[in-house]
Specification:
Aminopeptidase; 6 helices; transferase; MshD_Acetyltransferase; 8 strands; alpha+beta; 194 residues
């Protein structure tokens, strides 16, 4: 009898936690001021994918992810959050994050800002927004991979608090460039570290 009650209780607790997480990962569209300029921030929609792919192509010279990959990710609203930034109805950047509740890790899957809008605080804003959401769902770490040649992105991540880790050889599809693993300890931020 006790085992059945325990199983029911754990199932009920897990269901409640999943609902709290789903509610927390909701995102209300907003106008945000970033370094003196107004931007429209919204949860990514399937209809945003063509523009997301354009941004990827401008940033990376190709599209590391295809339409199908983004579509699958954006549809997974219980453990993924994809945000887009617009100004004057032009998509300027985006970020994607997956939330692994077994490892308590929020993993930035993808982030890109149009080159003409880089160094304006948009990328930093997007990462901070994901950090905030990650803390709300009790993630302990945030992780990402970055091209070893992308030193400007690495500088940004370091300023935010990410620590470099191991190098993943031949990580990127196409050119087989190595990736640098980076990790941020969110528990430090939750305890007032930043």
């Amino acid at each position: 009898m006790f085992e059945k009650f325990k199983e029911w209780f754990e199932t009920s607790q897990n269901r409640q936690r999943r609902q709290v997480i789903a509610d927390t990962l909701q995102f209300k569209n907003a106008i945000e001021n970033i370094n003196g300029e107004n931007y429209f921030i919204a949860r990514a929609q399937i209809t945003d994918i063509p523009e997301i792919l354009q941004v990827e192509q401008q940033v990376y010279g190709a599209t590391p992810w295809n339409e199908s990959a983004f579509s699958q990710e954006i549809r997974r609203s219980r453990d993924r959050l994809y945000l887009v930034v617009r100004q004057k109805d032009q998509l300027l950047g985006f970020i994607g994050c997956s939330f692994n509740f077994q490892k308590n890790d929020a993993h930035i899957t993808n982030i890109a800002v149009r080159p003409s809008f880089q160094n304006r605080g948009v990328g930093r804003y997007l990462i901070r927004k994901m950090i905030h959401k990650s803390l709300m769902v009790d993630m302990k770490t945030m992780s990402l991979e970055v091209r070893v040649s992308n030193t400007s992105a690495q500088r940004l991540y370091r300023r935010i608090g990410f620590i470099p880790g191991k190098t993943k050889k031949n990580y990127y599809f196409g050119d087989h460039e190595d990736a640098l693993d980076m990790q941020l300890e969110l528990s430090y931020l939750k305890d007032g570290g930043e």
